[in-house]
Specification:
2 copies of one chain form a homodimer.
Chain A lengths: L6 H6 L1 H4 L4 E5 L4 E4 L6 E7 L2 E6 L5 E7 L4 E3 L10 E6 L3 E7 L12 H28 L4 H15 L4 E3 L4 H8 L3 H13 L3 E4 L2 E4 L3
Antiparallel strand pairs in A: 1-8, 2-7, 3-6, 3-8, 4-5, 4-7, 9-11, 10-11
The structure holds a DNA duplex.
DNA sequence: GTTTTTCTGTTGCAAAAGCAACAAAATGGT
DNA sequence: ACCATTTTGTTGCTTTTGCAACAGAAAAAC
């Protein structure tokens, strides 16, 4: 996420600002929060990697969003419309700032700086989510696994101004993110290599076209 | 879209508020705006139906969003990440309020009421887009055409508190919205009927399960 | 009210994606 | 350094989806 709002600085001295905000640690695979109970949590991932994940009734797992350092998540950014479980799971050891709010739009009773800064930047933060979501819809509406892969690779490539990209998660997770079968995706990756469109070395991919 | 912000009243007296805002009419199939050129348009659909549509290189058409009376669209709500054409097309005769802004977050030089109200409600409006987008991701990540159909039907059913729903567009457009092949979708609808899960009469569908 | 166009519904066939299962490689934990 | 677990890569087979083509129904245009 690219922001004018400097999350890093904001997070650094959070204790100065508001004592209602807690920093918590999570081990790998721990559930950081769920989007089903209405606990109104707003979270900042200070360190580590986490995924917003949905499990459906058929046992399929879908990665809705992937979070890394300084990413922001919580129920403000996801008005739940689903019946399925929505969990944020720690991919590895995570440090998270958690703030439970009643109404994020209204000022904190203490009128503290944390909330002041937060509500000032909320539109910007939400607009960033919109950008991510639009990208995701863009990807998911592609008709074939091949186009989803190429679409995702070229998104990462453009964002980092580099034909060589490092996948932010495992191939197993990539399949869950693109919402396709893993083995079919592996087959397609092999065909992309055979067609000379990409080179692959572990989770490092180089685009050879254009 | 369900809003606290009363679009209808807001729109009614827009001339009082700001002379920079223009009302335009569009005939069926006319292009209302495109999201490629950076003209920074913010639009309110006063009357009619329109779709945000993408055409990809294979000629596939995807309906990204469907707009009806009082819906709001424009580039503020869609930070473009794509190479493809993104068009808003009038489905039938449309009346649209169009406002081209430099920076919607800053106040209008005239300090007019239009912009005051607009920027007050912008977070709310954007949050509504987020809800729509999350629903869309939810749908698109479903693995089969059947699940996409059932997911969409039950979304409409829940929203209107009714087991009987009226599809907001043609079956051809529904396929473009769910991002599946039309004939395959028709086949699946037939199977849903045969399995006794739905009843169908034109574009009126009744859910028979649960 | 007639013609033209779009939409619906269906089908046979081809292509793509999903499923299940397995071995090898890599990773993580202790 | 070892063992247990997860991930990668592959394959044969099945199921689902997409494509092309067409006829009838409905809607729009004139």
């Amino acid at each position: 996420m690219i922001l004018n709002f400097n999350v890093e600085n904001f997070v650094k001295d959070f204790e100065k600002y508001c004592h209602k905000v807690k920093k918590k640690e999570f081990a790998k695979n721990e559930v950081i929060t769920t989007y089903i109970e209405k606990r109104n949590q707003f979270c900042i991932l200070v360190n580590g990697n986490a995924d917003l994940v949905r499990y459906d009734f058929n046992g399929n797992r879908t990665i809705i969003e992937h979070f890394s350092k300084n990413d922001i998540f919580g129920e403000v950014f996801y008005t739940v419309t689903t019946n399925n479980e929505l969990l944020v799971e720690a991919r590895n050891k995570c440090e998270v700032l958690i703030y439970s709010y009643n109404d994020i739009h209204n000022k904190c009773k203490n009128n503290c700086k944390f909330h002041q800064i937060l509500s000032e930047h909320l539109p910007e933060l939400i607009l960033n989510k919109v950008t991510d979501l639009n990208m995701r819809v863009e990807l998911l509406t592609k008709r074939s696994t091949r186009d989803k892969l190429l679409g995702y690779f070229s998104f990462l490539s453009k964002r980092n101004f580099n034909k060589t990209i490092v996948l932010p998660f495992s191939l197993t997770d990539l399949a869950d993110y693109l919402s396709v079968d893993r083995s079919a995706m592996m087959r397609e990756i092999r065909l992309l290599k055979e067609d000379g469109l990409i080179e692959k070395n572990g989770n490092i991919i180089t685009l050879l076209y254009k």
